[in-house]
Design goal:
heterodimer, A: mainly alpha, Four Helix Bundle (Hemerythrin (Met), subunit A), 11 helices, 3 strands, B: 13 helices, globular
């Protein structure tokens, strides 16, 4: 009784939200109704006892596929008036295709014959002894293992194809090489400058970038040339020396 | 009493009571997690933290909640009202919904279902909707940018998380959360699967949008990200949802890697403490690391975040899964291999 009520409730919401997917004016609302439809389908799976399929439906379709839909649809700038302008022109073609499909469906459904032995089978998602997941795995990984692997390969090829078609390596893009980045150290990139008491800001023991090229060096050193205390040391010295030792070093000499 | 709970209506009452018994401590835990965060951050930065409201500032979370209730809910013009109000509710209710399957002690789960791990994974993968809907419905550039960042980030890290979970499942041979904890009776999975434990923990940081992966709300670039337009209780729901998610992810880490309610080593002085206490202590340990990480590390740059997820974690967790399965196969340790 309760199961029947739940089934019809979920089925009704499923159909209603599926109808809303195609009739909603706002594409974002369409996607949200699609998500609602997925959820109700998962609930129907649960009622049928297929708990594994229900969870996978939510994880794959709601958790990943619909997120990407939403992602793309939200960024679209769709002109709805323009979309609706061709309605009169495309209407007959659409109706014709729909009619053909409806006739085909009718032919299939009316010609359906249930095998006589199937009538006696109990309706269940899994054999009574095994859990849902185990029952599914026993079929997929033994009897249908090659088909299963082939399906995976097809998806892999589709994914690689999409990447190959869209990935362009622009030569101008600035790409970070993480290895180079993490191997950088203060000693390799910064220079320690020692200065005596009363020296200017240019000679206080602060880190500054190393001169990029050799010809820049004289220009860099020029301000200190007439200062007797100025004493630029090589970069290796500068690793840990900062502040205190920077001031005391000239006195020790 | 027993007979009453066996009837259909009695069962409903029982489940409601169980839900309350789980939710009320959870909500108090969420309130005090905000307090703990401020205290821990303060201690790390040599400050005092909240200490005025109540003894040691213990009433601070409730003062904050009252303040939030008194404020005005502002709905921006041009916002999609229904979705704008729905998003925070969705975020918070999803964070609470997942607790239905968490076993606090042996047999102490409200719903001890066969596909418990999948349920948790499904619910945590839905968390992105609250954020993405909030960002879109706000009709604001900053909120939208935050939502886009969050969607890309959460989808990326879910994949490596999935592989980590599969690795654990290969060692357990069941999708039931109680079975997963019981399989760790001899050794917790954080020891043999240590690299996966680390990857899982970092992925939960990204999944809950916590620092150093809090780019969706990166306040220095996009003000407050997806909830920039929210105020009063709708903001509070986002805030509480984030903390409830942190507790949920810590519970997941505890169940998958830290042996759930099991006492360490299973020896005498430790086994005197009841299981739920161990469960809570382990969750607190994970939460402390969440806060510690926040106080220690600067925020990632976005391309580095994506690189870490796709180019480091994903291949590594895939290779480790194959290795684990291979080792189990060679030594005949596969669970249920005999049956």
């Amino acid at each position: 009784m309760i199961v029947a009520i739940a089934f019809y409730a979920f089925a009704l919401i499923l159909l209603a939200s599926a109808a809303m997917v195609v009739t909603a004016r706002n594409p974002v609302h369409s996607v949200l109704f699609l998500i609602l439809a997925f959820f109700n389908a998962a609930a129907l799976f649960l009622i049928a006892g297929a708990e594994f399929l229900a969870m996978i439906l939510v994880i794959v379709y709601v958790g990943a596929v619909a997120v990407l839909f939403l992602f793309v649809v939200m960024m679209l700038d769709v002109n709805f008036a323009e979309l609706r302008s061709g309605y009169q022109r495309y209407m007959p073609v659409g109706a014709a295709i729909g009619g053909v499909l409806a006739i085909e469906l009718l032919l299939v459904v009316t010609g359906w014959q249930v095998a006589p032995e199937a009538l006696h089978l109990s309706l269940g998602a899994a054999p009574a002894a095994a859990t849902n997941t185990a029952a599914l795995a026993e079929v997929i990984y033994t009897k249908y293992v090659f088909l299963f692997q082939a399906a995976g390969l097809v998806l892999l090829v589709a994914m690689i194809g999409a990447i190959v078609l869209t990935l362009r390596d622009r030569k101008t893009s600035r790409h970070q090489v993480i290895r180079v980045q993490t191997e950088r150290s203060a000693a390799a990139t910064l220079e320690m400058v020692e200065a005596g008491i009363g020296a200017g800001i240019g000679t206080l023991g602060i880190y500054r970038p190393l001169p990029a090229t050799a010809d820049l060096e004289p220009a860099d050193n020029d301000p200190h040339a007439d200062d007797p205390h100025a004493d630029p040391v090589d970069a290796a010295h500068g690793g840990g020396a900062h502040g205190g030792s920077g001031h005391h070093a000239p006195e020790a000499r | 009493m027993e007979a009453f709970f066996a009837t259909g209506f009695g069962h409903l009452v029982l489940v409601l009571l169980q839900t309350l018994a789980l939710l009320i401590p959870l909500l108090i835990g969420v309130a005090y997690l905000t307090y703990a965060e401020r205290k821990v951050l303060a201690a790390i930065q040599l400050r005092k933290g909240p200490n005025v409201v109540g003894p040691f500032g213990l009433a601070q979370p409730f003062a904050d909640a009252l303040k939030m209730l008194m404020k005005e809910t502002i709905i921006p013009t041009g916002a999609n009202r229904l979705l704008f109000l729905m998003a925070p509710m969705l975020t918070f209710s999803l964070a609470v919904l997942a607790w239905a399957v968490i076993p606090v002690n042996e047999g102490w789960a409200i719903a001890d279902i066969n596909v418990g791990v999948l349920y948790l994974f499904a619910i945590s993968s839905l968390g992105v909707y609250g954020i993405i809907i909030a960002g879109w419905a706000s009709n604001s550039k900053y909120a939208f940018l935050g939502a886009l960042r969050s969607a890309a980030q959460m989808v990326s890290y879910e994949i490596s998380m999935g592989f980590v979970i599969v690795t654990v499942l290969v060692c357990v041979g069941s999708l039931n959360l109680t079975d997963i904890v019981l399989a760790q009776r001899h050794v917790w999975f954080c020891l043999p699967l240590f690299p996966m434990f680390i990857i899982f923990f970092i992925s939960t940081l990204a999944e809950t949008n916590r620092s150093p992966f809090d780019l969706p709300e990166g306040e220095s670039e996009i003000v407050a990200g997806f909830f920039v337009e929210y105020s009063a209780m709708s903001f509070a729901l986002f805030f509480l949802g984030e903390y409830a998610n942190m507790i949920l992810m810590s519970a997941m880490t505890t169940i998958l890697f830290l042996g759930g309610w099991l006492a360490p080593f299973g020896i005498e002085p430790f086994t005197w403490v009841p299981g739920p206490i161990w469960f809570i202590l382990k969750i607190c340990f994970c939460l402390f690391i969440f806060l510690w990480v926040r106080a220690t590390f600067p925020r990632y740059r976005y391309d580095q975040l994506m690189r870490l997820g796709w180019k480091v974690f994903l291949p590594f967790s895939m290779i480790w899964l194959v290795l684990t399965a291979g080792v189990l196969m060679i030594f005949g340790w596969l669970p249920g291999a005999g049956t």
